[in-house]
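Hello again,

I reread your note about wanting to compare the complex against the isolated chains. To keep things tidy I'm splitting this into two emails, and this first one only covers the full assembly. Below are the input lines as submitted, including protein chains and any nucleic acid or small-molecule components. They are followed by the predicted structure of everything together. The single-chain runs will come separately.
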Amino acid sequence: MEQSGSSLLEQDLAKLIVQTLKLKADPAAIEPEAALFGEGLGLDSIDALELSLAISQTYGYQLKSSDPQIKTIFSSLRALAAAIEKNRTK
Amino acid sequence: MRESPLIGPYDSNDVLAWDQRGPRTVHRFLADAASLAESLPDRPTALNLATNRYEFLVGFAAAIMRRQVTLLPQSRAPQTLLRIAGEFAGSYALTDRDDAIEGIDSISIQPRGGHAAWQGDILRIPSDQVVAVAFTSGSTGRPVPNKKTWGALTAVAQATGARLGIKAGERISVVATVPHQHMFGLEASVMLPVVHGLAMHAGRPLFPADIGSALADAAGRWILVTTPLHLRACVAEGLRMPPGGLILSATAPLSRDLAQQAERHFQAEVHEIFGFAEAGSIAERRTIDGDRWRPLESVRIEQDGPSCRVQAWYLSAPVPVPDRITVDSEGGFIVHGREADQVNVAGHRVSLGDLNHTLMQIDGVQDGVFFLPEEGAGLVTRLMAFVVAPGKTSDEIQRILRAHVDPVFMPRPLVCVPSLPRNATGKLPRESVSELARQWLEREGHDA
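Full-complex prediction:
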């Protein structure tokens, strides 16, 4: 498995992203450190909104863009998974 | 000649805008705008790219003071900006971030030196002064400019406020999730507060939690200027809002079901605005009351054969309505749908012909078509594209396309195919593309 470098939560989150946003990508092929927005997966602010709902429903963590860490949180799969790990309520 | 003041009934210490950095008073705004106006270059047109609503307003007002026209690009895609700057020779950009665009001179709206006491009178602006140009997507691949006079912007703001029951001197705060470079955003989140003397939130909250905290900070009664997309997210998230506010939605039709949920859940009235960049806002309805739109004061809609036209004193000529509508005997109307070439993605209208044209301009693309599938389960339904481009990968084409197309219209997915199902006359019937899309979605295991 190529996923030895990613945690279980990262793998689940990758699946959630691909499913929620109907991406063509294979969840296992999303690099944990690669950019999600802009050049990386090419996501935009509507994706961020859609993703935030899915994250809130799945993990009980409500994202806020006034959070000073928001840019870091959304920078990669790994960063997003780390923020969820820290803030999840389910 | 008709004229009206730059800002409405404020006292100089009233809060005109606020955000997490604190309040900006009317006094401060007038000083900021006047000092920026002095430092603007002698040019005819300015692309206002400010992301902060207050900074945008400062730039807009400064341009008006210098009798310059503000250009409102629908997207920040560099190619779009360069094309607009190319068509309006002598344009420069006003920005509030370090995001210079190569090939366009940029001026920072902030910081300005000192905030000297404001001494002058408030500028009065002639109704026929062209103050802004909004762009729409045509079928030729180039943005179509729509000139906006001061009279048109203020008349729409007056009429909208009157319809929503805004009283002079009432304490109201406006929070908006829509961009102010969008026609509805400019009218409802900038002109509406300025004309009626209301406070505006300078940010642009995205997530439900952001909207919630902006509303919690709002002084007095609140108005949330938003779209069905954000409203659906707020309802799904079970957001709490202080009761007694008013939600103003536009850019795409709101379902009565969602409006009912929102009214109940937020204890707020939900009103919708109908409009389009060519004419601005033309009608309003309270969604739970029914499908019928009531035209704003001084707007008249005339049936003209199968199509309709809008007339108003501030429009230099009647403007065709881009949707199929039926007008009733009292001047109200029902909307049946978009004209075939026009689609709406997440509240942004675009011509499929325009997108197809852009796609076909890409080197190595032999044939291509954009397609909007039927609405699915998500918040927003994205466009798809099918492309014939031997030797190119879908990623390569996406990368080039991204420089030319607003992110919201980027196809998801862009699928490379050996050929498109064109018929004998070379046309591509919608049903054939629809079938192609269905097959692809089935193969990939996504729900159609």
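For quick reference: Chain A has a mean pLDDT of 84.

B.
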